[in-house]
Amino acid sequence: PYGEILRGPDEAAFRMLAVAAPWRGHGAGELLVRACIERARALGCARMVISTEAGMQAAGRMYARLGFVRVPGRDWSPQPGVALLCLVLELAQAAQTG
Questions:
Q1: What domains, with CATH codes, occur in the chain?
Q2: 63 vs 67: CA distance, rounded Å
Q3: Residue 33, exposed/middle/buried by CB under 10 A (0-12, 13-18, 19+)?
Q4: Rounded to two decimals, what is the model's pTM?
């Protein structure tokens, strides 16, 4: 039921990354995202493309801190009433900024 957000073999994605409530706010989510970024980089991908909901504010702040930027032209909706925002991280740029 979910649309494909990747546009080519040089893009990587992860979906539905979640952290159990007791572990939120302790850096577990960021460690998981960083592991996904490193895996994509090791596979030779140029960018990481993910989707998030506007209401997920803590996740949005984390993604921004890691260098993800919103690409409104790639926002999508898997079903009526569910709007997903597309965020992209250029992996070469992420390697330079840490």
A1: 11-97 (3.40.630.30)
A2: 6
A3: buried
A4: 0.86
